[in-house]
Specification:
- The chain has one helix and 21 strands.
- The chain is mainly beta and 274 residues long.
- The longest helix is centred in the first third of the chain and has 15 residues.
- The N terminus is likely disordered.
Length: 274
């Protein structure tokens, strides 16, 4: 009798579970700068491949459904349950949470306050920069507060800031986020080597150029010299002279060379692929 009652109950519970309805599950990561262009993954179930996605009411940039991949045929992303996109800029939302909304066939699915817009900490805040590239290769600088207006990069020999070895124009990494990053190409024919560089835009400059990258700054000697004469003279006269000379040289001299006084921003131009 108990089995007869349990089976219909189990079927009833299973029938109440709606596995085929769209469901928005997550966004990853969950925060990024107000200037946008943070790469994100939006996941769910049965969310198709043609959905529109917005962040704080602003459409996301370059929304794309994950493509089928034979190597991962059992992965949810290969049946359209995952989207990738770039976050839109939203300076008005800096320091606040906003909703993620996915719209599919006219139906809206919302993750309430699921994304946090970080305020940019300052002008030309570069968090990722190309450190090595061949002549003719791509370079990029990304973060926030990065003006792309008339941006260019100039490469100089180390220790020589007079004439640039090469200069190239820079453009936004993504036109939808003009202050989130810039990119360009190392000019063809640029000799191999490590160069210091300066980026110039209408809003200012980024980078450090040094006329001398090998010299050091005179140091401060933090090793105390308490040598002198600390001995006690108790001889001769019955009076005790414990004074002696305990002074010595207590000054600090850390001396010497503590490294370059100027540290340039550098990039290495390689010979390319062989």
């Amino acid at each position: 009798m108990r089995t007869a009652h349990l089976l219909p109950l189990a079927l009833l519970v299973m029938s109440s579970c709606k596995f085929d309805e769209p469901r928005l599950v997550s966004i990853n990561p969950v925060h990024g700068y107000e200037d946008g262009c943070t790469f994100v993954e939006v996941r769910g179930s049965e969310i198709g491949t043609t959905a529109e996605i917005s962040l704080g009411g602003i459409p996301m940039i370059d929304v794309a459904a994950a493509e089928y991949d034979d190597a991962f045929e059992d992965h949810a992303q290969d049946v359209g349950f995952e989207y990738t996109a770039f976050t839109p800029p939203n300076n008005a939302a800096a320091g606040t949470f906003v909703d993620v909304m996915l719209t599919l066939d006219g139906e809206e699915f919302v993750l309430d306050k699921a994304w946090y817009y970080l305020a940019c900490p300052g002008e030309f805040n570069v968090e990722e920069a190309t450190e090595e590239a061949p002549a003719g290769g791509a370079i990029s600088f990304s973060g926030c507060g990065i003006s792309s207006s008339n941006a260019s990069i100039s490469l100089y020999e180390l220790g020589d800031t007079t004439t640039p070895v090469a200069t190239a124009s820079l453009v936004p990494l993504n036109d939808g986020c003009p202050n989130a990053g810039i990119s360009g190409t190392i000019p063809d024919g640029t000799p191999e080597g490590t160069y210091q560089y300066l980026i110039t835009t209408d809003d200012g400059t980024y980078g450090t150029l040094c006329d001398d990258t090998t010299g050091g700054s005179g140091g401060i000697d933090t090793s105390p010299d308490s040598g002198g004469d600390s001995g006690t003279d108790s001889g001769g006269d019955s009076g005790t002279d414990s004074g002696g000379d305990s002074g010595g040289d207590s000054g600090t001299d850390s001396g010497g060379d503590t490294g370059p006084s100027c540290v340039p921003t550098t990039i290495t131009v390689t010979g390319g692929e062989e």
